[in-house]
Design goal:
428 residues; alpha+beta; 15 helices; 16 strands; elongated
Length: 428
C-alpha cells in the first residue's frame, strides 16, 4: 500500500464543519467594509522577493528566517507573500491608483511564514487587510479604529478586547531614538535574552516588544521615545486621541508598542485580548507614509490594519460568540422511497428552490429504506424531513416530519409545500 500523503506541517485543512464559522466572519467584515465605502482588491500570493526585502526590511525576522522563497524556472527569486500591505501597494501603484488620488481598499487571503506552528499561529494563515491611501490627517487613522471597534461590537466581543496605541514618529525621530536606545542597551547586552541580543544590531526597536521578564526590567530604565518625538507626530497623535475620546473609544497608551515591519511610522495600534493566552493580538496596524516612495512610487500617505482570521475564529469560539444557527445548515431534507419517487424528488427540490430561493434543501440520493433515509435526514441537521413515496406522488402530496420539535407529522399538497415550509421556518 502506498504511503499516505499528509498536509504540510502548519498548513491546515478547513473542514466542512468549520467553514460556516469562517463564512460568517468573512461576511460580517465584507458587509461592514462595504458600508464604510471600501473596495475589494485581490493580489497574487506570489510576488518578487525584492518587494518584501525593500518593504519589510532585510534585517527583520520575516525576511531573514520566515519567508518561503525560491527560484522559479526562469531563475527569478519569488516569495509566497508573508503579509498583504506590500503587495497591495505594488498593485495600486502599478495600476495607477495612487498619485493624486484617495483610495480605501481591502483584501483577504492566505499569507505564509515559516514559523513554529502553535494554536492560533500557522505557516499558512489567513488575513483580512484594510489599506487607505492619499489621506494625511488623524481622521482616517480614527476611522480605521472606529471601523474595527464597530466590527467587534457587531460580533459581540468588544468587551473582551483592549485597544493599545502608540506613535513611532517620523523616520528622523526613530533614527535618533534608535541610537539612544542602542547605546543604553549595549551596556546591558549580556543580560538581554538571546533574541534581543541579536536584534540589538539589526532591529533594536523590536526589543521594546520583548516578552522576556529580565529584558523588560532593563527597559524600565531605558530612554523614552517621547523624548525624541517630533512635533508633527506629536500633534497628529494628539488629534487621533481627541477623535477617539469624542467617539467614546477606550484605549491604553503603550509606549513600547512597535510593529514588526520596518515601514511603520507615526500611529501604530493593536487590539488585544486575554482570552487566548499568549496569542493575544487579533488586529494590528498603523501608518506607513513612506512605503509607496520606498517601493518606487511618489510619496503617498497611507494607513491600514490587518486581522488574522484563524485567531478571530478561535476568539469567537472561546467566547461562544458564534450564533447557534450556524450549526443549522439545512432547512429540509427530501427523502424519496422508490425509483420513480427518486427522480420525482429531484424535480420537486428544484421547484421548491425556485419558489423559495432562500430555502436550504438537500435531496437524498443513493436509495435505501425508510429507516436509513430518516437517519440521514437527522444527521444532516435539517429541521424538517420531507417524505415522498409513490403513494404521495399519486395523490400530489408530501409529508413533513419535524425533526427538532415534538409535533405530529403533517401532509401537505405539493403546490403548497414551499409556502408551508417557509411559514414554519419563519415561526420558529
Amino acid at each position: 500500500m502506498a504511503k499516505k500523503i499528509q498536509a504540510i506541517r502548519g498548513m491546515n485543512d478547513l473542514l466542512p464543519d468549520a467553514s460556516p464559522r469562517w463564512q460568517y466572519l468573512e461576511e460580517k467584515v465584507r458587509t461592514l467594509l462595504d458600508r464604510y465605502g471600501y473596495s475589494e482588491i485581490r493580489m497574487p500570493v506570489l510576488e518578487q522577493t525584492a518587494l518584501f526585502k525593500r518593504s519589510i526590511g532585510e534585517v527583520t525576522d520575516i525576511v531573514e528566517k520566515e519567508m518561503y522563497t525560491f527560484e522559479d524556472r526562469n531563475g527569478d527569486s519569488l516569495t509566497l507573500r508573508p503579509e498583504g500591505t506590500a503587495g497591495c501597494v505594488r498593485a495600486a501603484e502599478e495600476h495607477g491608483l495612487l498619485f493624486n488620488q484617495q483610495q480605501r481598499l481591502w483584501y483577504q487571503g492566505p499569507m505564509f511564514r515559516h514559523e513554529r506552528p502553535q494554536k492560533g499561529r500557522y505557516r499558512q494563515f489567513h488575513q483580512i487587510g484594510v489599506e487607505t491611501f492619499g489621506l494625511t490627517g488623524p481622521d482616517i487613522d480614527a476611522e480605521l479604529i472606529l471601523l474595527s471597534a464597530r466590527l467587534w461590537k457587531e460580533l459581540g466581543i468588544l468587551d473582551h478586547l483592549t485597544l493599545e496605541l502608540n506613535t513611532l514618529g517620523s523616520s528622523e525621530a526613530r533614527a535618533q531614538y534608535r541610537t539612544a536606545l542602542t547605546t543604553f542597551l549595549e551596556q546591558h547586552r549580556q543580560d538581554l535574552d538571546e533574541d534581543s541580543q541579536r536584534r540589538l544590531t539589526t532591529n533594536p526597536l523590536r526589543i521594546l516588544d520583548s516578552k522576556d521578564a529580565r529584558t523588560q526590567e532593563i527597559l524600565e530604565a531605558a530612554p523614552r521615545f517621547e523624548e525624541h518625538l517630533d512635533e508633527e507626530s506629536r500633534q497628529h497623535f494628539a488629534g487621533l486621541c481627541q477623535l477617539l475620546d469624542a467617539a467614546g473609544i477606550q484605549y491604553t497608551l503603550n509606549p513600547r508598542l512597535v510593529r514588526g515591519l520596518d515601514y511603520y511610522g507615526k500611529t501604530v495600534f493593536e487590539w488585544t485580548t486575554r482570552a487566548l493566552g499568549s496569542q493575544g493580538t487579533v488586529c494590528a496596524g498603523g501608518r506607513y507614509d513612506g512605503l509607496v516612495d520606498q517601493l518606487g512610487g511618489r510619496a503617498t500617505p497611507a494607513v491600514g490594519f490587518a486581522m488574522g482570521i484563524e485567531r478571530l475564529v478561535l476568539l469567537l469560539e472561546t467566547l461562544e460568540a458564534f450564533p447557534a444557527e450556524l450549526d443549522q445548515r439545512l432547512d429540509a431534507y427530501l427523502t424519496a422511497f422508490g425509483e420513480e419517487a427518486q427522480g420525482y424528488a429531484l424535480l420537486l427540490a428544484e421547484r421548491l428552490r425556485s419558489e423559495q430561493p432562500e430555502l436550504r434543501i438537500q435531496t437524498h440520493c443513493g436509495g435505501g429504506n425508510f429507516k436509513k433515509q430518516i437517519k440521514k435526514a437527522d444527521q444532516s441537521g435539517a429541521r424538517l424531513a420531507l417524505l415522498l413515496g409513490e403513494d404521495e406522488m399519486s395523490r400530489g402530496v408530501a409529508s413533513i416530519k419535524f425533526l427538532r420539535e415534538d409535533k405530529e407529522q403533517i401532509e401537505v399538497p405539493v403546490s403548497e409545500l414551499a409556502l408551508t415550509i417557509k411559514e414554519h421556518l419563519q415561526s420558529h
